[in-house]
Amino acid sequence: MEKQYLEKSEAGSRRAEGKIWIREVGSWKLEVSYWRGMASRVHLLSWMLLVVLSILQFPTSIIQAQTLDDHLLTATENNPEIQAYFSDYLAALERIPQAGTLPDPELSLGLFVRPMERFMGNQHADLQLMQMFPWFGSLGIRKDEASKMARARYEAFRMVKNELLFQVKVAWYELSRLNEEIKISKAHLNILEKYERLALVRYQSSNREMNRSNASSNQGMEDVLRIRMEMNELENTISLLEDTQEALVAEFNALLNRNPEETLAIPDKLPDEPLPMNRLELLDSIKTFNPRLRMLDAEGAAYASQKKMAELEGRPMMGAGVNYMAFSPRTENGMNMGGNNMVMPMFKITLPIYRKKFKSMEKAAALNQQASLQRMENTVNQLSTQWRNALRDWDDANRRVDLYQKQTKLAQQTLDLLMTAYASDGKAFEDLLKVQQQLLDYQLKRIMAIVDKNNSLAQLENLAGI
């Protein structure tokens, strides 16, 4: 804010007459007074200080507008659903060392209230330590199954993340569309205001001619009223677009887990990007890197490991341990008998004779693996269909972009000709308004076509896991 005023001294002396410049930047105020002889130097210095204070006043986060990539990164870091799925993946990773761990050793201790008389002496205590070992390879299979389940959880995390990024892109393109439509509508509103002034001039000129001939007429006023009707509708449309944009900003911030009232720096122009790769290469990328397919593949591999694990669990478990018995000498016929402590190695084995349980576990794992393969096949078919539909929508949007660009150019040329005719003889007003509305419609349809094209591209990127 800048104010300039002239201040005179109380004595009215001309030598005391000077100028004071007051500049305010936020909460800073810069006041510089100077005499006529130092005006240029102090004025330059004041502007230099103003620039410095302006830089200090506004943070760089406001100066630098955030791009779509910045918002995608923010959504990945802040969205609570993404964080929840990533926590699921980390929890699955923690199950891997659990699966590869031996069972806890067993320690049992028995104390005799009264020593038990044995041939080797009086036994006071019995201590046993036993460690069980699963069948050979069981621990490795368990770790393999847990690691593949963790990979499936990671692909589930990727699938949710890609879906979130797709929603962010669609919301961002929609915000850009609304911003473009508001600008185009305001530009057309300015054009209608020029038409209104031109129609008023023609109406006033016609009235003056009629007054000279002592006649009265409202010829030309209907043109002014019709233009005002168009302006009212356009102003209402602009208000609706602004309200919709405000609601969409809150929705966009919710995807980023931010304050709904946080402002966004929306770009002035929508991007119009080509396909990232060849169409068949894109299909191959979808079949290779799609997170849903990779998740089903990891689950199928985990079920295969479960089948092997069920087979190994039907094998015996072996245990090795030691038994320690504490003795004291026993007196017999006046002589001490025995009293030496005993250590006895032990071996233990389980007998899995009830086979129905293990056969049922193997069959369940095989059926789960088959179901996973069937889901993969169905998912491949669905992804191929979605790939074709997305490419069809992209081609259609690309054609519409070219079409409405040509139509906009032709409508503008027609409008220039009609405007010249109306300015000269006041004719073709109906056609003028009609073509003006067509021009607005073509411009808005072109923006919508670009948005549809970007949405189709975002869908393809989502399918390919890009």
UniProtKB/TrEMBL annotation:
<feature type="coiled-coil region">
    <location>
        <begin position="366"/>
        <end position="393"/>
    </location>
</feature>
<feature type="coiled-coil region">
    <location>
        <begin position="224"/>
        <end position="251"/>
    </location>
</feature>
<keyword id="KW-0175">Coiled coil</keyword>
<keyword id="KW-0472">Membrane</keyword>
<protein>
    <submittedName>
        <fullName>TolC family protein</fullName>
    </submittedName>
</protein>
<keyword id="KW-0812">Transmembrane</keyword>
<dbReference type="InterPro" id="IPR010131">
    <property type="entry name" value="MdtP/NodT-like"/>
</dbReference>
<keyword id="KW-1133">Transmembrane helix</keyword>
<feature type="transmembrane region" description="Helical">
    <location>
        <begin position="44"/>
        <end position="63"/>
    </location>
</feature>
